[in-house]
Design a protein that fits this description.
This protein folds into three domains: about 220 residues, Rossmann fold, CATH 3.40.50; about 80 residues, Orthogonal Bundle (Helicase, Ruva Protein, domain 3), CATH 1.10.8.470; about 80 residues, Beta-grasp domain (Ubiquitin-like (UB roll)). It is about 40% helix and about 20% strand. Strands 1, 2, 3, 4, 5, 6 and 7 form a seven-stranded mixed beta sheet that branches. Strand 8 and strand 9 form a beta hairpin. About 5% of the residues have low confidence.
């Protein structure tokens, strides 16, 4: 799973990325500080199974802390987007091609209104403009890809009588377009899929928009929420885009807390609403941390909001669930307890999960055991979030 961070220059993408990953990346208050994409590992957070099962986690990937399991996901921070990127302006062509393999996008918006559309410092800028511009540029990106091949594709599809949804999914599989997605869109729009060569430019644009929305779903991280005008701007943004998932966040605050925790100055669990001082801090450090506690953690429902953004994009936007594959006594053959946690699509069957863990497990599948209930489950059984299963093979 790959999640792309997108947004205008200087919106705080690299700070958000570093807060999630603690990777060593350049953070600078000028446009295009990021040129080449940065890749790193962030973590979604779920309630750990170890307490429920009476064991102690020993993860091979991710980690367990304070009764919470942190499951790794790959993040990618790309260059800032400016208007005209779909036509190559700025670093547009590189930016968009970098996003091809992303499963979902997090749009980092400077909700304070203190940077303009080019990433320059200002006052009173309306961040609603950022949503409108980025949505349009992403739609134009998809439209450009469609138009390059559309006439030939539509004509060939009609001559060969190939099913439309299958043909589109095959042509655009690199963008993670699925056949069922195409069918859903055509039905929703009421288009004639038997004669795509007769579609108008407006119809093609609408199709590109829907295709992009379903294959690259997006959540909005309303960043810099702790600055003075952010609250009013957040309210206006939610009114303008009620259909979007919008999470207020302060990536600066999250980065400060995680770095303080990594230097053992505080005890802090990502996503929590408080921390404990434990190291030797000077007065300036104490004041900075207390400011975060007062102005961010105690003020907003999800603390700094950064962990909430990651959780929502994975569990709400992509409809993933977490499944634990184990052997006897909840371990593996090396003695690791609850060693792995897989993020998989909601509705997955026991057999499909076996294949997801390893092809040989799927090929030799006999049954699975629900390790919470000790009941046997068949190959068609649909797994639930936080199920713990042992796969029995022949």
């Amino acid at each position: 799973m790959l999640i792309g961070l997108v947004g205008l220059p200087n919106a705080g993408k690299s700070t958000f990325f570093k807060a999630c990953t603690l990777s060593d990346v350049l953070i600078a208050s000028y446009p295009f500080a990021t040129i080449k994409p940065n890749h790193g590992i962030g973590y979604v957070k779920i309630k750990a199974l170890c307490g429920e099962l009476g064991v102690k986690c020993n993860p091979r990937t991710g980690y367990c802390a304070n009764g919470k399991r942190f499951v790794p996901v790959e993040l990618m921070d790309v260059a800032g987007l400016v208007e005209g990127a779909s036509k190559g302006k700025g670093l547009g062509n590189e930016f968009l091609s970098d996003l091809t393999n992303a499963d979902a996008l997090i749009h980092i918006v400077d909700i304070s209104g203190e940077t303009d559309s080019e990433g320059k410092e200002t006052k009173g800028y309306n961040p609603i403009n950022d949503i409108q511009m980025l949505e349009n540029e992403l739609d134009l990106w998809y439209l450009g890809i469609l138009k390059k091949v559309w006439k030939t594709f539509a004509r060939t599809m009609q001559q060969t009588k190939k099913e439309f949804a299958e043909a589109v999914a095959t042509q655009f599989s690199g963008l993670k377009v699925k056949e069922e997605d195409v069918k859903h869109i055509v039905l929703k729009l009421g288009y004639n899929s038997e004669k795509p060569s007769e579609w108008t430019d407006d119809q093609l644009m609408r199709f590109a928009h829907e295709l992009r929305h379903i294959s690259k779903p997006m959540i909005v991280a309303a960043n810099k929420i702790d600055l003075p005008s952010s609250g009013e701007n957040l309210g206006n943004l939610k009114k303008a885009y009620p259909e979007l998932i919008i999470v207020p966040c302060s990536s600066d605050s999250e980065l400060a807390l995680r770095e303080a925790s990594s230097h053992e100055l505080i005890d802090y669990i990502p996503g929590e609403k408080d921390f404990k001082l434990k190291g030797e801090l000077n007065e300036k450090q104490k004041q900075a941390l207390e400011s975060i506690r007062k102005n961010v953690l105690s003020k907003y429902e999800h603390g700094t909001g950064v962990q909430e953004v990651l959780n929502k994009v994975v569990f709400d936007l992509l409809n993933q669930i977490a499944i634990f594959p184990v052997g006897a006594k909840f371990g593996d053959n090396k003695g690791n307890i609850l060693p792995d946690c897989f993020l998989v699509q909601e509705g997955i069957t026991a057999l499909d999960f076996a294949y997801a863990v390893h092809t040989d497990l799927g090929k030799n599948f006999i049954k699975a055991i629900d390790m919470k209930t000790k009941q046997a489950i068949g190959k068609e059984h649909k797994l639930k979030h936080k199920d713990c299963v042992e796969i029995i093979i022949r």
